[in-house]
Amino acid sequence: MARTQGSHSDITGPKVRDAALRLFARHGYAAVSMRQIAKEVGVQAGALYNYTPDKQSLLFSLLKGHMDDLLAAWEAEPKAGDALARLEQFTRFHIRSTVKTPEAIFISYMELRNLEPENFAVIEDLRGAYEDQLEQILRSGAETGAFDVPDPKIATMAVIAMLTGVNTWYRHEGRLSLSEVEGIYWDMVRKSVGG
């Protein structure tokens, strides 16, 4: 019924997600209507419900998909040796990941507050699982004397906040390459934990 001629679920479904991601990042979740998403995709508003039950489900799907992808990518990384090498690996991985997915990172932080409680709990658990990866590295380094971090949990939050910040200013056409930025940030992270 509401399908635009020539649309297909394997094509239109991802377009709905991409359009919602762009619009949520640009205007904010609360300001975007399902009608705007439909217009961006080129389908009638009613057709969106073939791809998502509602706007809340769409936001949750975007945030969960981002966290699932991030955790899977980190899991797939061959792990470096000692805590110092693993911390460098995490630093560079997190920067590369945030620069690759700026809109997903933006809504992951800015739109978390718009999730319903049960959806919020799922995303918080996934974020916690990711943060735990870094916390374990810091804890391991502190236990062996490689790092001087009195509170690995606080250090984890500080390091992730610093690394995620690259997303707000880094531009591929800027004066520094991504590799150079990673190197500078790695030096700051290393010094911040006494490595």
UniProtKB/TrEMBL annotation:
Signal peptide (UniProt feature, chain positions): none
InterPro entries: Homeodomain-like_sf, HTH-type_TetR-like_transc_reg, HTH_TetR, KstR2_TetR_C, Tet_transcr_reg_TetR-rel_C_sf
Pfam family, one: TetR_N
HTH tetR-type domain boundaries: 10-70
Originating organism: Pseudoprimorskyibacter insulae
Gene that encodes the chain: kstR2
UniProt name for this protein: HTH-type transcriptional repressor KstR2
Residues of the DNA-binding region: 33-52
GO molecular-function term, one example from the UniProt record: DNA-binding transcription factor activity
Protein keywords: DNA-binding
Highest taxon, organism lineage: Bacteria
